[in-house]
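PROTEIN FOLDING TASK:
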Amino acid sequence: MKVEKKDLGKSQMELTVELTVDEFKPYIVKGAEKVSQEIKINGFRPGKIPYAVLKDKIGEMSLLEEGARIAINKTVDKAIMDNMGGRVPVGQPEVNITKLAPGNPLEYKVVMAILPEVKLGNYKNLKIKKNEIKADDKEADKAIDYLLESRVKEAIVGREAKEGDKVIISVEMFLDNVPIDGGQKNDMPIVLGKDYIVPGFDKQLLKSKKGETREFKLPYPKDFHMANLAGKMVEFKVKIKEVYERQMPKADDEFAKQFGLNNMEELKNNIKKSLAEEKRQKEGERQEIELITKIIDKSDFGDIPEVLINNEAETMVYELKHGIEHQGGKFADYLSSIKKTEEQLKLDMAPNAVKRVKSALIIRAIGDKEKIEAGEKDIDREVEKLLKQYQGYEKVTARVKDPEYRAYLHNTLTSRKVVEKLKEWNVEK
């Protein structure tokens, strides 16, 4: 097999691969065998049809094309890996047959995107500020209020709704007497006395009773994320479907015992520790973003392949979609509210996708230069941790044991090690 390579620029490479007549011949035979299994010719059993008969029946080029497909599948990966010269291919290569004729060699071309070269700027002693991590009593009290709220007891009542009650409503929204797209909600819970997107909405429902309908107008906040509603006076038509009285548990030692603790002081201290850990994680993320951004600004990048940007933009759309659905929303409603298609949203995300790609390239380049890499023991520890965490979840545990997942873990843990080292070099003590 002969391979010639050509740098096409813009982080693309082309390989021209040639198999001699003798190298190609066994694949033609395999192609004919495959065709003979799939075609019916009277007088011959499947898989036992002679080449000459197949040639007369469907044409020799059909047999050569099938042989070429098999040959390419068997040889293309080796052709790529043996001729990259240290460059890393990304995405799926584009393969085209350029020469195919009876009694001739097979020639095909492979065009692939490759990771761009990165000329690293300074990545040490960048003096990233370290913010103090602390959770105060006020934050802990707010978290306790949330816990109390999550364990409230509710009972249907026949009286008028008062502050502290929960009402179940159906609501219709209108703008200039025209129904708002997506502005109809059924079985929506509202706790009277709590703040909502539209200030004062809950107060309009005080002293309402089951079966009653109320109509009123309220302005949406000027900074509301849906431009068609921001700052607009919206008409609401609300039907009360049920009224619930709510009984909040007391914040005492008996409440703390529900969480396996002795008293409220222990609960509050545990909450403060959890809040501090959450802040510590967010501070770590902030440091990483500031640090990587500084290194990106000091570095030079080759042309970034479109496939990398597109893949990252698709990942960002998926993350947004998952986040909206996790909170009970519908991605289709979100797209409708911003008046964009999923493809347009992906295009909007391209600039941030480029930043994320550059971040990954920076981390990879520093890992290579500093010879930072996750070892087999690191991966084994992570696998063991995941198996314990997801014990009983057969699909998850099977995935964790997959060799491909180990490769994914290797990349993830290597990136984590690089970031930890960068913080060690750059974050002020």
Notes: The chain has three domains: 2-114, 153-247, 279-426. Residues 264-298 form the longest helix (35 residues). The CA atoms of residues 167 and 243 lie 5 Å apart.
